[in-house]
Amino acid sequence: MSDYWNEKTRSLTPYVPGEQPREGKFIKLNTNENPYPPSPLVLEAVHKVQAGDLRLYPDPVCTELREAIARRYAVTPDQVFAGNSSDEVLAFTFAAFFSGQEILFPDITYSFYKVYAKLWEVPYRAIPLTLDFTMSAADYLGPCGGVIFPNPNAPTGIAVSLDAIREIAKAAERKKRVVVVDEAYIAFAAGEGIGSAIPMTSEFSNLLVTRTFSKEASLAGLRVGFAIGSEELIEGLCRIRDSFNSYVLDRFALAGATAAISDIQYYEGINRRVINTRSRVTSGLAALGFKVLPSQANFLFVSPPPENGKSAGEFNAALREKGILVRHFDKPRIGDFLRITMGTDEDMDVFLKACEDILNTD
Predict the structure, then answer these.
(1) At what angle do helices 112-119 and 85-97 cross, to 10 degrees?
(2) Fewer CB in 10 Å around end: N or C, the chain?
(3) What are the CA-CA distances from residue 22 to residues 13, 19, 28, 58 (Å)?
(4) 196-222 per-position pLDDT tens digit
């Protein structure tokens, strides 16, 4: 603690991201990055950014990018907000739509939500997931100041059906409350009745859907995210942005993201590969005795077999010794689990062999 910090700064417990090692050679399966490179169109677009233009501010309202997103998802540009990663967009939603009455989100979910709530002084209630780590829509229908949750959830990877989202949005709309669906991983969902809630934004004026280019578009290094919702919700986000930092995206990010949103075929191809890898690794881990939750994301949430004698934390350390990084959340209810990002098939072969070796070690 510093004598120079104000009370707000002293009270915060910041979000801790996954490790980004600077030394050593690791297979990184800990931060949910896409294992495949971005579209060649992205690289071409970034290279075309003129050096002389860097002396000028970028477009503060991200017109070209918003128009491209609008075309992709059959909405109008006025229904699209672009920001510096979905994390920033999500932070703006807390500032724009939540205050006073407690908001609802799952007890096991993206830990940044609690950080945002503390930062913006938004009261919240963490709703316990069921025993099988699923989210029950019935728990989110009562009085509240709003609802936010990821779909699929993180770190469990389990998805909520579109019918459940519709039920939650309808109940909140009657109370004039906003529902935010964080779709960071929806591109990897393939279950029946599971999919993006973006089409529902035309049905519910209180529904905001956020997305990121980091995972599905292999652009974690550019930090671009967006939201789609009614014009009144988007205007609310713009008011927060323009009271904070009008120029949220630089010229490289705008060019790269605009190119990425147009290359549907390329990204559907690589993300289908991730889904196939997820299925294969699920089977491989289950054969080794792991408990594997049914993921719709680009990661798996797994618990090592108890008979192996190693806790999840110990297994995490053993994998690190073998040059493999995964994520362990030492928290109530999930301390026995590890989150495993899907890498390339070659990466996952090494991972599965490492798991087998650790289990066979006395």
Answers:
(1) 40
(2) C
(3) 25, 9, 12, 31
(4) 999 999 999 999 999 999 999 999 999
Distance between CA atoms of 81 and 228, rounded to whole angstroms? 6
pLDDT of residue 207: 98
Q: Are strands 80-83 and 324-325 parallel, antiparallel or unpaired?
A: unpaired
pLDDT-derived band at 190 (thresholds 50, 70, 90) equals: confident
Question: Which element (helix H / strand E) includes 358?
Answer: helix 345-359
Fold of 7-37+265-359: Aspartate Aminotransferase, domain 1 (3.90.1150)
The Cα–Cα gap between 103 and 248 comes to 27
Tokens 């728990």 correspond to what residue?
139
Answer yes or no: pTM beyond 0.90: yes
Confidence of residue 191 (pLDDT cuts 50, 70, 90): confident
Nearest to 285, CA basis, from 360, 351, 343:
351
Nearest alpha carbon to residue 214 among 17, 13, 58, 76:
17
Residue 210 in tokens: 């956020």
Topology of the domain covering 40-263: Aspartate Aminotransferase; domain 2 (3.40.640)
- Does 362 score more than 70 pLDDT? no
Residue 83's closest CA among 100, 113, 62?
62
Structure tokens at 42: 């992205």
Q: Is the dihedral of CA 211, 212, 218, 224 positive or negative?
A: positive
Q: Which helix (H) or strand (E) holds 104?
A: strand 103-106
Residue 113 has pLDDT above 90, yes or no: yes
DSSP helix/strand/coil, 153:
coil
What confidence score (pLDDT) does residue 213 get?
98
Alpha-carbon span 314 to 275, nearest angstrom: 28
